[in-house]
Amino acid sequence: MDIKTLDHQYVANTYKRFPVEIVGGHGSIVTDRDGKEYIDLGSGIAVNAFGMGDPAWQEAVIGQIHKFQHTSNLYYTEPCARLAQMLCEKTGMKKVFFSNSGAEANECAIKVARKYAAEKKGPDYYTILTLENSFHGRTLTTLAATGQDEFHRDFQPLTPGFVHARANDLSDVLEKAKAHKLAGIMIEVVQGEGGVITLEADFVKGIAALCQKEDIVLICDEVQIGNGRSGHLYGYMHYGITPDVFSTAKGLCAGLPLGATVLGEKVENVLGYGDNGSTFGGNPICCAGAISTLSRMDEALLAEVQAKSQYIVETLTGAKGVKAVSGLGLLLGIAPERDCATVINECIEAGVLVLSAHGKVRLLPALNIPMEQLRKAVEILRDVLAR
Ligand SMILES: *Cc1c(COP(=O)(O)O)cnc(C)c1O
């Protein structure tokens, strides 16, 4: 049986896969079963920050595999402690809880907000405000946080205590903050899954001011836009705000599962012994990979991300067949005049992998994609969009 048939027979039906079986890759080039090469503008949904098989990343990960692979969180390990130090020193935050995914990182952020508010203001201050059209994960609690009804329909009852306000509508946020006893407000500064919607600066600053004034825990979900993708180390830095908590995952270890909930001064000691835990969280191989990844996200790389972003935006804005270009850094959304699925399939046929998000073509290339490959891929995309 070929792999596609096997997959359809034995893997749960949750994913509508593109008709491509990937067998290998190098950098931003991936190869399918037939030996066809593609330029990858998706990077495994923002995970492969340095593309496929990056040598420095491989060396860090394989080096740790040769030492030991796992200890459990009952023991101290150097990669975990050093990565936590690095995350704090690069952001000014104070402590880190490690998990395995974005959803878990958000669950921890929500627990922190609820415990902080319960202790500070009382047990009825448990509601978390999130935005319509957001995406925060697939667990029942992070689904409740996700402000998109179509994800909720078949899984009721979800965790109670979530309320959604309209993105980029500060008066709606202020109204709902008055009507509910809030523990926290959680935002993605660019709503990735929701269609690459960038939050406006006044809106984000307004939320930060509200959180400060009312002592509400401000959580930034940096799972997709974080780790250099915005052209800043974390997306919130673009706005000049400081969250109390940020969560991240996807690109953090550039290809292995690692989630992190990063705590600022206000909440650094909210979690005590036994308040959270994870068997795999902070795995030494993943942490060694993340140390390598984060140590390369310096000013030079971030400037490169911004320059590549500018190239894509300038090339596609106003191009034939393009309604609009949105996003930040190397998380960009192209609203096509033609049907989005058709555009994506024609790109794949032409040798370029792109993703979708709410009717837009979503681009999430590796941060280090060579300019020559990016140029070639964007020209193909431009031609497909113009058909
Ligand atoms: C992908 C994503 C998540 C969920 O991450 P998982 O690792 O799939 O659990 C949460 N928030 C945002 C913004 C995401 O893009």
What structural keywords apply?
387 residues; alpha/beta; seven-stranded mixed β-sheet; 17 strands; globular; binds pyridoxal-5'-phosphate
In short:
The protein is of the alpha/beta class and 387 residues long.
Instruction: Name the bound molecules.
Output: pyridoxal-5'-phosphate
* Ends distance: 37 Å
Give the overall average pLDDT. Answer: 98
Count of helical segments? 12
Helix and strand content put the structural class at alpha/beta
Largest sheet: 7 strands, mixed
Strand and helix order: HEEEHHHEHEHEHEEEHEEEHHEEHEEEH
Total number of strands:
17
Unreliable sequence segments: none
- Numbering strands along the chain, what is their spatial order in the largest sheet? 4-12-11-10-7-5-6
**Which geometry do the CA atoms define?**
globular
> Could you tell me the radius of gyration in angstroms?
21 Å
GO molecular function: identical protein binding; pyridoxal phosphate binding; transaminase activity
Protein name: Acetylornithine/succinylornithine family transaminase
GO biological process, one term: L-arginine biosynthetic process
Family: Belongs to the class-III pyridoxal-phosphate-dependent aminotransferase family.
Overview of this protein structure:
The structure is a single chain. This protein is α/β, with parallel strands linked by helices and 387 residues long. Helix content is 37%, strand content 19%. The chain has twelve helices and 17 strands. The strands form four sheets. The protein has a seven-stranded mixed beta sheet, sandwiched between helices. α3 (55-67) packs antiparallel against α9, α4 (78-91) runs parallel beside α9 (284-295) and α10 (299-316) packs parallel to α12 (371-385). The longest helix is centred in the N-terminal third of the chain and has 20 residues, at 102-121. The protein starts with a helix and ends with a helix. The model has no long low-confidence stretch (mean pLDDT 98). The structure holds pyridoxal-5'-phosphate. Pyridoxal-5'-phosphate (PLP) binds next to α5.
